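Sequence of Vacuolar protein-sorting-associated protein 25 (Rhodosorus marinus).
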Amino acid sequence: MEVQDRGSDFKFPAFYSFPPSFTRQPIPATREKQIRLWGDLIRDYCQHYRIFWLDVAQAAASPLFNNQAVSRRLSLEDARFFLGELVSRGDAEWDQNQQRCLIYWRRPAEWGGLIYDWVESVGRNGTVMTVYEIRLGEETKGEEFFNLELELTLKALADLEVTGKAAVFGTERSDQLGVKFL
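Predicted 3D structure, token representation.
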């Protein structure tokens, strides 16, 4: 879990200072609210620090799941549970081993929309670019999708392909894939 310096500290929501929040609640209605609160916190935290892949073990030891001010932390089991709930609502995706989650603080379709809006604004329709140029190129510096995680970029481009706005070509899932914007 690589945290990028965003210039200011993250502001945790009020429930984060309430010790019972760090224990999975047994009453279904309370647990549902707790699931929503933790899901929103995980997404907001990851967005603030531009974290795309959240490693469960690292996150369990990080400030995200460990509030030293109230001497409470989520257990590894509960961290997995809340991440699993985030996956079930479509805001994250497990890796093969369920050790890391790809967090969708923006869903792939939203990233695709941002990429396509940029393509249109700079007149790149009908041109071919590499995934590298989209993610890390000079032209995209300063765009929200600059330095977007590769897997998420590929998912965003696949969504654009399904909607008929792009054609992705190549066989290896890498920065070397070509993309023609339609």
